[in-house]
Design a protein that fits this description.
Layout: H1 2-6, E1 14-22, E2 27-34, E3 39-40, E4 47-48, E5 51-64, E6 67-79, E7 89-91, H2 106-119, H3 121-131, H4 137-145, E8 157-166, E9 170-177, E10 182-187, H5 192-201, E11 207-210, H6 214-223, E12 228-231, H7 233-249, H8 252-262, H9 275-303, H10 308-315, H11 319-327, H12 350-358, H13 364-373, H14 380-396, H15 420-428, H16 436-447, H17 452-466, H18 473-482, H19 486-497, H20 499-505, H21 513-528, H22 535-544
Parallel strand pairs: 2-6, 8-11, 11-12
Antiparallel strand pairs: 1-2, 3-4, 5-6, 6-7, 8-9, 9-10
Helix pairs in contact: 2-3, 2-4, 3-4, 5-6, 7-15, 7-17, 8-16, 9-10, 10-11, 13-14, 17-18, 18-19
């Protein structure tokens, strides 16, 4: 009895009367009663000793050694002796044991909340069954949703960024205390007035870090005019990359020239093309003609005054495609998609497979068994895909020096072309991370007269951002504005419109990096709940579990 008494939720104000153990049902039932002599009225807080009546409550408690625990709690009703109080009769409160009208103890509810915050609904229900106290999905989520949000102090340095409830449709805003490295709020949208209202309700923020969103800029200016706004350096480089990629998209001929000059290889002798190859080429030409017609229509409609959404709706294409066509003074050719070239568990066995293939052994199942005996632990599907690729090479017979129907002993996939995105990545990649081949390719890009100016501007801006050379910002803006590159002129103009925040971004050490990390955690929670969690539940799982 003494041991069971010590295990009660509140051993001081509860006394164990009796207990029963049902081994068949694996349930321990404890009969207990409250022992406090006086209790306060929940309305006027006046103490009273006058008992009105008694009744019994049944509560679930934490399990004990795989036995479910049920508490039969005898509680009392009291008269309120305060003549000015509106409450005449009330039930005694046991705040350390249970809440009014609850069917479980406080400590059991706390465990349910911890499970719900960590795992969510369905996974939390499965774990609660394993732990011996099953709970329904709706009840678990209800307990989490009723949890009050933490009351945190107003941060001195606040990071602001957006996240997607549904990508491309609805967005919210996440606020992070950059000094304490913890999120403090989720806002239902990314409108300026919503952020401004939150800042007005929480005065005292001194530094605000953000991307270059105009709505966030406006909201910060309205809600915390005295705070210093800082443009995040990562987003500055991201905006720069978008400008450079748009520029390279208009220079497809120059990129192709540089690519061919950098990878000079003798052209293989081609045999007469097959009928299937001719049909593929014809289909590709038809697709190009359709894209070219759309490209011309986009520019014609734009000259007639149509907006981008109207053009996209009229031609049944995406707005991003319309923007890309409008940003390209000449028709952007499609780059052939490179074959997947990442490392594979089959790589050590490809030479053996080619030898067997050229020797006449072309049954995939037998080849699979042979390399399994040599230690291959991959799947049959991987081998089947590779032998299918060998059949394609064999039919095309591109490398005739090995004989008709043969494949080269060291077959490699085609080299990916130099696309606008790949060229952008190459220019912005730090020098110490480039290989010798990448450095040589970048040098060829820089030597091309149509690309030199843009590359110089990009590398200059990237250097001043990464090294926080704030004194170089004004000269760079003058250089970009006076250049003949319209894309960089517009980029420089946008920086000048947000000059104070950009200047602070390349001067101060403050960064939105940890905000991006919190957004990644938020995405994980959203996916864990299949994107169906509303803002109240999502906020609690995001803010209370950190």
């Amino acid at each position: 009895m003494e041991l069971l008494q010590s295990l009660l939720p509140d051993p001081i104000h509860l006394r164990l009367e009796s207990w029963t153990l049902d081994r068949a049902q694996k349930q321990l039932t404890l009969t207990i009663r409250a022992t406090q002599s006086t209790t306060p009225c929940p309305l006027c807080q006046g103490l009273t000793q006058r008992i009105h009546s008694r009744y019994q409550r049944t509560l679930r408690d934490l399990p004990c050694a795989h036995y479910a625990v049920k508490l039969r709690l005898q509680v009392r009703k009291f008269f309120c002796t305060n003549p000015l109080c509106q409450r005449r009769i009330f039930t005694e409160r046991l705040p350390q044991v249970t809440l009014p009208w609850a069917r479980r103890t406080v400590r059991l509810a706390e465990q349910f909340v911890a499970i719900g915050l960590a795992l969510g609904g369905a996974a939390g229900v499965r774990l609660s069954r394993t732990l011996g106290h099953p709970m329904s999905l709706n009840c678990l989520l209800h307990l989490v949703s009723q949890r009050p949000l933490p009351a945190l102090a107003v941060p001195k340095t606040l990071g602001v960024d957006d996240f997607a409830f549904r990508k491309g449709q609805t967005y919210g805003t996440v606020l992070v205390d950059l000094d304490q490295h913890r999120p403090i709020a989720l806002l239902p949208d990314r409108e300026a007035n919503t952020l401004a209202e939150w800042l007005k309700q929480h005065p005292g923020v001194e530094v605000l870090s953000r991307d270059r969103s105009r709505s966030y800029k406006q909201g910060m200016s309205e809600g915390a005019a005295e705070a210093v706004q800082v443009a995040d350096r990562f987003h500055l480089l991201q905006n720069l990359a978008e400008v450079l990629e748009s520029f390279f998209a208009t220079q497809s001929k120059a990129l192709k020239t540089v690519d061919l000059a950098h990878h000079r290889t003798p052209e293989p002798e081609l045999e007469k093309p097959t009928q299937a190859l001719i049909q593929r080429q014809q289909r590709a030409q038809q697709r190009r003609e359709r894209r070219l017609a759309n490209y011309e229509q986009v520019h014609q409609l734009r000259q007639q005054g149509f907006s981008v959404p109207d053009i996209a709706h009229h031609l049944a294409m995406g707005e991003r495609t319309v923007f890309r066509y409008l940003a390209s003074p000449e028709f952007p050719e499609w780059q052939p998609h490179p074959r997947h070239t990442r490392k594979s568990s089959l790589d050590p066995y490809k030479t053996y497979l080619i030898e067997q293939w050229n020797g006449g052994q072309r049954q995939t199942k037998l080849l699979f068994v042979q390399i399994q005996q040599q230690g291959y632990r991959g799947s049959y599907a991987t081998v089947a895909r590779y032998t299918h690729y060998l059949r394609q090479v064999q039919r095309q017979s591109l490398n005739v020096q090995y004989g008709r129907g043969q494949v080269p002993p060291h077959l490699s996939h085609p080299r990916p072309p130099l696309s606008a995105r790949r060229a952008t990545w190459l220019v912005l990649k730090p020098a110490k991370q480039r290989s010798e081949d990448q450095q040589a390719l970048l040098a060829r890009l820089h030597e091309h007269p149509d690309l030199t100016g843009a590359i110089d501007l990009v590398q200059g801006f990237a250097q001043l951002v990464r090294q926080r050379q704030s004194e170089q910002l004004d000269p760079w803006l003058e250089q970009a504005t006076s250049s003949s590159l319209s894309l960089f002129q517009r980029f420089a103009k946008s920086l000048q419109e947000d000059y104070a925040a950009v200047k602070a971004g390349v001067t101060l050490h403050i960064s939105n990096g940890q905000v991006e990390g919190q957004i990644n955690r938020l995405k994980m929670l959203k996916r864990q709940m299949y994107g169906r969690a509303g803002l109240p539940l999502l906020s609690r799982r995001f803010l209370l579990a950190c």
